[in-house]
Task: structure prediction
Amino acid sequence: MGLVTLFSYRSGSTVWHTLDVRCKCLLVCLLSLAVLRTGLPGTIMCLGVLTAILKTVEIGPLRLLMQLKAFLLFLIVIFLCRWAGTPGRPMVTVYELELTHQGFVSGSLVSLRFLAVMLLGLVLTATTRSMEIKASIQWFLRPVPFIPEKRVAVMAGLALKFMPLLFDNAREVSYAVNARCGNLRKNPVQRLINLAWPLLKKTFQSADDLSLAMQARCYSENRTDPHFSPNGKESWIFVMTLIFSAVILLMDHWALWAHVQNQILN
Amino acid sequence: MTTVLLETDHLTHAFGSENTGIFDICLSVSRNDFIVLAGKNGCGKTTLIRHFNGLLTPKAGQVLFNGRDIQKNLTHARKKIGMVFQDPDTQIIADTVFDETAFGPENLNMDRKEIDEKVKNVLTLLDLDHLQDRNPATLSGGEKRRLAIAGILVMEPELIIFDEPFANLDYPSILALVKLCRKLHQSGHAIVMTTHDVAPVIKIATKMIIMDKGRIKVQGDPVSLASRLESHGVKNPFTPMAQAWAL
Result:
């Protein structure tokens, strides 16, 4: 029996599952924009809410940490680069390298923003079938002239379909490498090559097989799309999200205002 | 009366060197046929059946379905000739069992109500209706294989092609699959099955074709051809050793 990867759809009857997919896409866009405009407190608050939502769809914080290990490592690298590369008031000095307060705040903000946007995407993919997302993209793009909405939606749908497949392949390859003690290798470049090369081959093979299977079942752009089925709670959830977005944006303004006042008083 | 459903006329498809591929294949599949296509790995079985579904284009010769070249109307051919791939994971596209089954009819642009009805019927037929909201990745090997068959059956094919259907299946799943194949055959579907383990189906198949090095070596009644299997690299299910293994 196979396992469901983090980005796979998991069936359920929570409000996030039954919400109209168009509304969900709008909310994800709205919250992403709010997260990109807010500061550290707003981002942390948003992360808290997203973690709670993910818990309701049976993705607990521990599972998140375990499955996003590589991504978290990437975020740590971003954080360290920002911390070391931003000029300002010194905080710590390591081997003549000054790590600043400003760098610490900026690094935390950028990496937490990345994490928040990733979790938003995760909430969407874990509670929405890829075919519904495809149908909603098509619906949003329909009024836009000169854009082949069906083709774009097919591409987005395939990308969404491919993401869990990629994670699944990566897991299989890493099991196979570790089964032959590949994890004992000290050289990180060699470890990366050991993982990347078979993963690349397997991914291309999977893409090829998937396209054959789709062709065998007459895949085309002109197909019956799933119908949208609103659960009736869209309007109040939209209003709540608007209020939440406004709150996290205002938090940033209050923080900024307090900072300016402190500067003036000092 | 036997009606010819599918025919290949001197079908050839060579890959690169002249030694790999399929060469000069002439065969016919009738409406009431259950054909076992046997041969060792790399003998061209999968290449041949991919031509039946129009997934490959012949280098020479043609594949005729109901007397018409399948390349002239691929959509019709793919609707009427269903293909169950060797690895069901590569055939599974959607996020739920229901969506996966509905994938084919959606591609044919059928009406939503009609799709829902057909999918429900097929899922009930294959005893998958209780799993309709499950993610296919969480199903067992046997359930995935049945799901792959459901995705084909819902398109109402006349001919069903199975590529190594017993690969990676446990004994109860093989038994269930053989029963299902027999049921499908009895309900009027022609079946072509590639395998290098002919034991589960040798008694229910109506014809066996043995391939070697891309060519048809021999074809005829499955039981009477069993003794010639081993010379082409396929286990004869009636030898004492095969019987002992089966035990």
User: Anything to note?
Assistant: Chain A has a mean pLDDT of 87. The interface with chain B takes residues 1-5, 8-11, 129-131, 161, 164, 168, 206, 209-210, 212-220, 222-227 of chain A (CB under 8 Å). The radius of gyration of chain A is 22 Å.
